[in-house]
Amino acid sequence: MIVRKKICRIEFGLFSSKMIRKLSAAKIYTPNTYDEDGYPIEGGLMDPRLGVIDPGIRCKTCGGRLGECQGHFGHIELVRPVIHVGYAREIYLLLRATCRKCGRLLLSEEELKKYNPENMTKSQFNDIWERAIRVTDSEGSCPYCGEKQIKIKFVRPYSYYEGDDNLLVTDIKERFEKITDDDLKFIGIKVRPEWMILSCIPVLPITARPSITLESSDRSEDDLTHKLVDILRINQRLEENINSGAPQLIIEDLWDLLQYHVATYFDNGITGIPPARHRSGRPLKTIAQRLKGKEGRFRKNLSGKRVNFSARTVIGPDPNISINEVGVPEVIALELTVPEEVNERNIEDLRKCILNGPKKHPGAVNVITSIGRRRILEENKEEIAKNLQYGDIVERHIQDGDIAIFNRQPSLHRISMMCHYVRVLPHNTLRLNTAVCAPYNADFDGDEMNIHIPQSEEAMAEAEILMKVQECIISPRHGKPIIGGRHDHVTGVYLLTKKGVEFTRSEALKLTQGIIKLPKGKDKFTGKEIFQELLPRDFSIEYKGKLCKKCEKCLKERCEIEAYVKIKNGKLLSGIIDAEGMSGKLLEKLFVKYGSDVAREFIDNSTKLAIRVVMKFGFTISADDWKLSEKARKRIDELIEKAKLDVDKLIQEYKSGRLKIIPGKSLEESLEDYAIMDLGNARNLAGKAAEEDVGFNSAVIMAKTGARGSLLNLTQMSAVVGQQAVRGKRIKRGYYGRTLPHFKKGDVSAEANGFVTNSFSTGLTPTEYFFHSMGGRESLVDTAIRTARSGYMQRRLINALQDLKINDDGTVRGDSNVVVQFKYGEDGIDPMKKCYLEIE
Amino acid sequence: MRHRLVPRHEVLSKEEAEKLLKFYNVTKNEIPRIKKTDPALKDMDVKVGDIIKITRESPTSGVAIYYRVVIEG
Predict the structure, then answer these.
(1) A574-584: b or e for each residue (b if 16 or more CB lie within 10 Å)?
(2) In this complex, which of B25, B26, B64 lies closest to A826 when CB atoms are compared?
(3) Is A819 close to B64, i.e. CB distance below 8 A?
């Protein structure tokens, strides 16, 4: 029966010393762990009553074997009580809130009558706390016994002083014992306060702190065992000293040492005390350290676990496999398996797998029959193959066409994990089509990626239907394609579809062989005619490509630069295909109109074709691509000179007070804004001038088609680098009244404030170089900080949103069906499906 | 409370409230809350347990409707 109940609250409590003793299977009293023969000592930390960690031995407490017995707690009797560091603050509060003599809450009967201890709010608790504490802090007297209270000082992490006298833990314990249960109700404490003082501590079962045997047959103990040994040793010394009547001073020193060890046993990262160290000088990993932080139990072992049926290695590009595929090295294919049920269709294939055994590629590792699981070995494989029956399950190696989930960290999006078909290939890297680099944000400079093999029919079907690469072509972020041809693919397809490209039939066949079929009976093909073979017969679209200059009056098909793409019934009538075609509007419409299969095919084929085209034509850039003529150089120099004069003029205006102030900014800020604007304009104009001069070469082709780089990059190389900025402003920092000692104090010119007049090809002057480095360093630091910050923000966001889901009625609901939004995104639209609304 | 930055808050009638809960198949515990002392409810006569209909401008859908149940506070 399923019991459906809601958790109303969770209460945490404390163990009393009595309880600790009751839970204990053994009293631990000696710091020695093993005797000379290597057997654990009774009453030592490795007491056999605490559980088993060695195979073949039975537990002395429960009789269980290794794996059956989860271990048992022991306990250590402390000679003198110590404070539990986790409650040091609460002890301090409680000491102040109660009378030092009679232990009553420092609030009179009448005042307490105003409250109902059974039904208190948080603010009422705080109120009582505050008022009771105020009595001690102001050295008032107890309303019950009239005792004058003395101020108490708390010295972190665990010392208390009353006036100038050190408060002994035994005294604190005595005081706490006097506090009545009724009083505690008024301050919201549900445990006996003396339980915050430890007079005995539990010893973790040895299964929680197993010792490991090194190769040299030496035993190496867990950090917690070391810590417990320390506690026992000091405890023993303290006892001896007390019994021999040592001076109080020595006893208190040892007592303090015991307190230190018990405190670091709980948490070895307390501020104010040095961390306990191992002999080698490494700080010990005690209880708090086991749980805390990224490497702790929660984040390392519970929220995230290591899994089976996965692999990880370096990735490499393979333009010849489909975007839906992932190339898996054979060595990995030998390790990863999928369970497959035997039926009449696959029995022969599976038999062959079994006969190949676990060490030859399309092989198998295990067989699960009605009797049970059997490992396939060289010796028994023939017999297993012979007895194979319908209904048996064979765990065979992954083969071409199996489902895999491919992932690259950081997994910031859903498309950081997509489903691919396995393709077993030679060599040692995982291979992916370069068109799917974008969603994974992958490159091949040493990136590694993971694959996971789903192990059930449901999981495989789910992965295939929901997360196959071709289903993820449209990004859920903006509803436009994120997968598609890029870089060289764009260049290639540009070279193919521009005006005047013609091929003989044999050339055309060479380009398209194995990709598309060319129409029969034609001897000459234009590039456009080849490209259109990639499109469905009834496909029509018109759009403005990346090349578009945004003229005031669009000439459409007659566009001079062929930026207007017109496709009618599968014929490319005009226009050059650029980035907008390879991974933009054209691809989007293909996806929406014909579905993911057609879109995938288009990406696979167009990229392959494009690569062949670039290889046929060749494509190079060189320094000459941004070499300017004498005339253009002069023109650019003039533009920059004019901009500098403009800035000087602005400064004149500023000084004479004629400068127009931008609303919401100060006079100085306005001046800065104007200057930045003027210099920025100058760079834009210089860029235009350079662009006109260099003409239409390879570098410009890449920038304009959206293959790689931008016109700004070209401007900076050929014309002028422009204004450098730090913190969004021109460079103003450095020396008194100037940025660098190369300038006069109070120099307000553009050059003295980080304007770089030269281009990268003419070369920067030393001061310009320095300014450029300042800007460069800032952006470097920014990216470093940005990734760290946004990563943490993402983590918190995902944690908060992880179990929200959209219901069939459009509401967004969280845990236990709480409504968060009545309509997802207020309009109920899935951005990934948005494109269906927008196209036609 | 009338201001262009404060979305419109209205109390649903008993029938409307019931219809709403039935429509979304929710109980009052499962819909978002609003404190009785919320400044937006200042001039309104509301009781704990009333459902407030909030009509907001939305960048995605033009107008978005949201409901909150009044709680103590």
Answers:
(1) bbbbbbbbbbb
(2) B64
(3) no
* pLDDT confidence tier of residue A753, bands split at 50, 70 and 90: confident
Cβ–Cβ < 8 Å for B59, B45:
no
Question: Is residue B1, in this structure, part of any structural domain at all?
Answer: no
Q: Is B23 exposed, middle or buried (0-12, 13-18, 19+ CB in 10 A)?
A: exposed
Q: What is the dihedral of CA A260, A263, A269, A272, to 10 degrees?
A: -50
Is the domain of A631 the same as that of A660? Answer: yes
Task: With beta carbons under 8 A apart, name residues in chain A contacting B29.
Answer: 818
At A547, which CATH number? 1.10.274.100
Nearest CA to CA, how far is A417 from chain B (Å)? Answer: 28
pLDDT over threshold 80, residue A217: no
In a domain, B64, yes or no: yes
Contact B58 A809 (CB under 8 A): no
Per the CB < 8 Å rule, is A817 touching B64?
A: no
Domain of residue B53 covers: 8-71
Summary count for chain B: helices (H), strands (E): 1, 4
pLDDT at A840 over 70: no
Please tell me the total count of domains within chain A: 6
If asked whether residues A518 and A567 sit together in one domain, one would say yes
Contact A471, A598 (CB under 8 A): no
Give me the residue label for tokens 């540009």.
Answer: A494
Among A490, A510, A509, which residue's Cα sits nearest to residue A498? Answer: A490
Computed over every residue of chain A, the mean pLDDT equals 90
Same domain? For A126 and A259 the reply is no
- Residue keyed to tokens 């408060």: A167
Q: Tell me how far the alpha carbon of residue A41 is from its chain's centroid.
A: 47
B44 domain-assigned: yes
Q: What is the pLDDT of residues A78-110, one digit of tens each?
A: 999 999 999 999 999 999 999 988 888 998 888
Q: Which tokens in the block code for residue B23? A: 């429509």
| B3 is a domain residue | no
Specify the number of domains making up chain B: 1
Instruction: Tell me if B61 and A809 make a contact (CB, 8 A cut-off).
Output: no
Rounded (5°) CA angle A392-A393-A396: 135
Record: contact B32-A820, CB cut-off 8 A: yes
Q: Is A499 within a domain?
A: yes
Residues A409 and A352 in one domain: yes
Interface membership of A815 toward B (CB under 8 Å): no
Question: Tens of pLDDT along B27-66?
Answer: 998 999 999 999 988 888 888 999 999 999 988 888 999 9
Nearest to B58 among A817, A818, A826 (CB): A826
The first and second tokens of residue A442, run together, are 């992958």
Pairing of strands A403-407, A448-452: antiparallel
Check whether residue A461 and residue A588 sit in a common domain: no
Domain span including residue A633: 623-765
Distance from CA of B26 to the nearest CA of A (A): 8
A284 part of a folded domain: yes
- DSSP-derived 3-state class of residue A521: coil
Residue A213 lies in a domain: no
Q: Do A811 and B24 touch (CB under 8 A)?
A: yes
Asked if A368 and A441 sit in the same domain, the reply is yes
Beta bridge pairs of residue A417: A407
Instruction: Write the CATH number for B29.
Output: 3.90.940.20
Size of interface A-B (CB pairs under 8 A): 35
Put simply, the answer to whether B26 touches A829 (Cβ < 8 Å) is no
Residues A356, A454, single domain; the answer is: yes
Helix, strand and coil percent figures for chain B, each rounded to 5:
25, 35, 40
Closest-CA residue of chain A to B53: A822
**Is any Cβ of chain A less than 8 angstroms from the Cβ of B72?**
no
- Claim to verify: residue A706 and residue A645 sit in the same structural domain: yes
Distance of residue A819 Cα from the nearest chain B Cα, in angstroms? 5
The answer to whether residue A208 sits within a structural domain is no
